[in-house]
Design brief:
The complex is a heterodimer. By secondary structure, chain A is an alpha+beta fold. A 5-stranded mixed beta sheet of chain A has the order 2-1-5-3-4, with no helix packed on it. Chain A has 1 helix and 6 strands. Chain B is an alpha/beta fold. Chain B has a single domain, classed as Cytidine Deaminase, domain 2, CATH 3.40.140.10. In chain B, strand 6 and strand 7 form a beta hairpin. The longest helix of chain B is centred in the first third of the chain and has 14 residues. The chains are: A alpha+beta, B alpha/beta. Chains A and B meet through strand 5 and strand 6 of A and strand 4, helix 2, strand 5 and helix 3 of B. Strand 6 of chain A pairs antiparallel with strand 4 of chain B.
């Protein structure tokens, strides 16, 4: 199964785990699996309209999925997906 | 989730936070807070970061890139600490968390905001995002 790396501020929703296996052949499916298993994390990943929160960045390996296939980016068995938040304010 | 109501920042680290804000003035400065969360949340190191916003926006906006975020997490791990928060400055404006701060905030983190007036840091306050993302809740900064 692909693995999903969880950033520090979201680990409170994954029982403290920094890396979890996820089911899914695409990034979208992997995120669906994540929020199904850890529902409280959903509002910090997705907006109410189902779009990604603007501060959510997803990297497959070293590459931002924006430059791959977006949420349709395929995931293979040994792939590593990482959530990295944009930290912003002012 | 148990939430602490206070954030311990040792005086020497508060000075570093102030210095970041003063050095960055009239732009916003920013960085990470490294530390521990049990039994109480305590800052043990301060990690300056570049404000990646474009020139015209830096006076009232800050951005830490995903690449710098990752570097910060790895550095915290190297030190055996956790990333427990973010600090940033408000040049010539109060140290209240803004609506824009709230929209972009992460759960769990302490957000330390320092007012810097005419290049001089005045005061820091700290805020945590409510569970439903609807507001910030202030936490008390103590020195020990």
């Amino acid at each position: 199964m692909p693995t999903l790396r969880i950033p520090t501020p979201l680990r409170v929703y994954t029982d403290g785990q920094s890396e979890i296996p996820v089911n899914g052949a695409t990034v979208s499916e992997a995120l669906s699996d994540l929020v199904t298993r850890h529902p409280a994390i959903k509002q910090h990943i997705f907006k109410e309209d189902g779009e990604l929160q603007p501060f959510v960045n997803l990297f497959k390996g070293q590459e931002n999925i924006v430059f791959l296939g977006g949420l349709d980016t395929p995931l293979a068995e040994k792939d590593s997906l990482r959530i990295i938040p944009s930290i912003a304010g002012g | 989730m148990e939430r602490s109501v206070s954030l311990i920042i040792p005086p020497d680290l508060l000075v570093k936070i102030y210095q970041n804000g003063e050095k960055s003035f009239p732009d916003e400065g920013a960085g990470f807070l490294f530390g521990t969360d049990t039994p109480t949340r305590r800052v043990l190191a301060v990690y300056d970061l570049a404000n990646a916003r474009e020139d015209a926006a830096r006076h009232n906006r800050f951005l830490i890139t995903p690449e710098d975020y990752l570097k910060g997490e790895l550095e915290a791990e190297r030190l055996g600490l956790d990333v427990i928060g973010v600090f940033h400055s408000h040049p010539d404006s109060p140290n209240h968390a803004s609506e824009y701060d709230r929209e972009w905030a992460q759960p769990y983190f302490s957000y330390v905001i320092t007012s810097v007036y005419s290049g001089k840091a005045l005061e820091s306050r700290s805020w945590r995002l409510a569970e439903d993302r609807s507001q910030f809740i202030e936490e008390t900064i103590t020195s020990a």
